[in-house]
Write a structure and sequence with these properties.
By secondary structure, the protein is α/β, with parallel strands linked by helices. The protein folds into 2 domains: about 5-95 and about 180-290, Alpha/beta knot (3-Layer(aba) Sandwich); about 110-170, OB fold (Dihydrolipoamide Acetyltransferase, E2P) (Beta Barrel), CATH 2.40.50.140. Helix content is about 25%, strand content about 25%. The chain contains 8 helices and 11 strands. The protein has helices at about 20-35, 55-70, 75-80, 170-175, 195-200, 215-220, 245-250, 280-290, and strands spanning about 5-10, 40-45, 110-120, 125-130, 135, 150-160, 165-170, 185-190, 205-215, 235, 265. A 6-stranded parallel beta sheet has the order 8-2-1-10-9-11. It has a 5-stranded mixed β-barrel with strand order 3-4-5-7-6. A hairpin with a 5-residue loop joins strand 3 (about 110-120) and strand 4.
Length: about 300
Amino acid sequence: MTLPRIAVALPDSMVYEYKHLRDKTEKLGYIIRALSIFQVTDIFIYHSPFITPAEAEKEKRIIKNIIGYAECPQYLRKQLFPIHRDLEFVGVLPPLATPHHSVETKLKEGEIREALVYLGNDNKIYANVGMKFPVLIHNSPPESLKDKKIRKTVRMVKENDSHKFFAEIVPRELVQSETYWGFKIKFTDISVAKFGDRLKDFFIIATDRQGKSYTTVKEEIDEGVLKIKNKNSILFLFGEPRFDLYQMLKGFSNIKLKDISNIVINAVPYSGTRSIRLEEAVMISLARILPVVGIHN
């Protein structure tokens, strides 16, 4: 069975309101833990009109470093993430415990792992796969690396009549189609108003308190009134902590939320609180709406 592609679009201001780096790190941890639980494969970061370009650059750097660190398997972090001020409080991040983080102490035939691939002094290609010693790569020419160390997805292969293993590089997309293999994060400078134009391959679900109740949407789907045209590529669009999507579009006179999404859904129609935090909205929306549209039933 091919796994669906589940994406979220979040603003670069998602943790802007938190002034202390520890709080930013903690909130990002809640969000990416929720995304991992519901097997989100793509995170798109769009520009919020409520922060300046300079503020956006700082926020994006923090988001990139912290989320990238959390997504990276533990045995590769020291090599891929040198000491940086943005990572001072990564100790508060929850473990993701996703398949590409969970490795055994012994290699197995056909096992898939994330690896740091590099060129050895003997001009052979090696991979750090989380063991005491690196393994050889058999399907990557030395000239493709030169002085670089790059992260790749590899499959372990046992040599004939031997206890030794070597690794072969495999496309991450191929692995992701069969096993949840974490997420990729993509940054863009475009605003939420232009987002729908860039991601037409997705069925875009905008999440907002002014949308249809998720229970109403379920009834319409069950009755055949509403059809989800592409269940294999679903994108959830979220507003920022201080402003919902309708408020974010007020500065664009000719653009409505329905113009940039396929449907607007309210995942918490009977909230007992004045507002819902972004990390709460992400968790609740994915938990309630994915089964409604036929994913993770």
